[in-house]
Design goal:
Helix content is 38%, strand content 19%. The protein is globular, with a radius of gyration of 20 Å.
Amino acid sequence: MKIIVAGGDGFCGWPTALYLSKQGHEVTIVDSLIRRKWDQELASNSLTPIASLDDRVACWARHTGRTIRTFLGDLNHYDFLREVLIQTRPDALVHFAEQRSAPYSMIDREHAVFTQVNNVVGTLNVLYAIKEIVPECHLIKLGTMGEYGTPNIDIEEGYLKVNHNGREDILPFPKQPGSMYHLSKVHDSHNIMFACKAWGIRATDLNQGVVYGLHTDETVLDPLLLNRLDYDAVFGTVLNRFLIQAAMGHDLTVYGRGGQTRGFINILDTVRCIELAALNPADNGEFRVFNQFTEEFSVLDLAHKVQEVAAQDGLAVRIGNLANPRTEKEEHYYNAKHNKLQDLGLNPHLLTPKVLRDIFHSVIEYKDNVIKANIMPKINWK
C-alpha cells in the first residue's frame, strides 16, 4: 500500500513509518519538525539522542534498501498538503501530526489556542484534501482515550446503545475531555464523523491509551534510528517520568492520591495496530472507533511497579505524593472495552516485569542526558 505517515518524525510516527516500510508498504513521512522546536521552547530534550530526519531515512535506506519519502511542511498549509496528496496518491493516511501534550495545552491562553487551531484545522485540511484529491483514501486518525474522561459506566468503543423514553438509538459515546488538548481531539472526532457522513470518506479513529516503551525491532538496527523518549513534566508520559526519576534517585511524583486509572499500550503494539487498521479499512462513509490499548493501570500501580524494578538493581526509590496540578478525579471507576483490534489479530505485548526492566535499563543507559530542572511539574490547570 501507499501510506502517508503525518507526524512521522515523532514518538509514535517514526517507529510506525519504519515498521510499515519493513512490511513492504510505500511510506511517505510528512512532518513540520515542530516537535523538535518545542524542545527548544521548553529547554527540554529527548532522553535518547535523536538524529535529523534526513539522517534517519538515509540510515534506514542503507540498512534495508527501502526508501522513505519525506515532505517537510505543515498540515495547516492547505496548498502544501494538497500537493503532497497529488504527488503520492495514498491508499491510507496515518494522522499523528498534532500537538499531543495535555500540559502544553494548559500553559496559558496562547498555548491552548495554538493547540486547538493546530490540531482541529490540520485535521479539517486533511479531510478536505482527501475529499478533493483521493476520496478512496482511508484516514487512520490517532485519537485518545482521554476523550472519554472517567465516566461511572463502562466505556464502549466509540458508540453507546441508548434507550430513552421508549426509543433506542446507537449514539457517539459521551465525551468528558480533561484538557484543551483532549478537547481538540473531541472536535476532531466530530469533524471526521461529519465528513464521513456528508462526503462518504472512510475513517478509523484510534483512541489510544498512554504509550510506553522505547525500542522496536526496526529502531534498534542503528543508533541513528533511535526513537525519542520524553521524560519531562510536559511531554513525558507517567511511566517514562517514573522510570527517569527512579534512575536519578528522585522520589516518584504521584499526583494526588494516585488512583487515576488509564489504558496503556506498548509502542510495539501501536505500530501493529496502525497496520491492522490499514489492512482492514473502514467502509466508504464509515466512521469507526477502536480503543487502542491493552491494559489498565492506576498511577499508583505504576509507581509500585517501577519501585520494584528499581529495587532489583539495588536502587531504593521512594514514592512521593504531590498536590495534583491537574483537574481530574483521583479515584474513580474505569472499565474500557478494547476488543476490536484484538479481533483483527493484535497479539498484545503486556507490561511484564521483564519488559519494564528492559525499558529501565535503556533509561539508565542515557540518564546523563536528563535535565534535572524538568523533572518536576510547573504547569497548573487552575
